[in-house]
Design a protein that fits this description.
Layout (H helix, E strand, L loop, with lengths): L12 E6 L5 E6 L3 E8 L2 E8 H10 L2
Antiparallel strand pairs: 1-2, 3-4
Amino acid sequence: MSKVCAITGKGPLSGNKRSHSLRATRRKWNVNLQKVNVMVDGKPQKIRISARALRTLKKQGI
């Protein structure tokens, strides 16, 4: 299972973790994915969407 939102296409971001002495090591920020049952073409389907996309769908009443 990939760590990508099914609706927005958001994926993990990468960058540097900085210590107190500013040494840089690589790190990754993963997307906050949630498993949700959503109606797709009139049928309930379980998809993985980001928490932000879920919030937007709830706000729009979908």
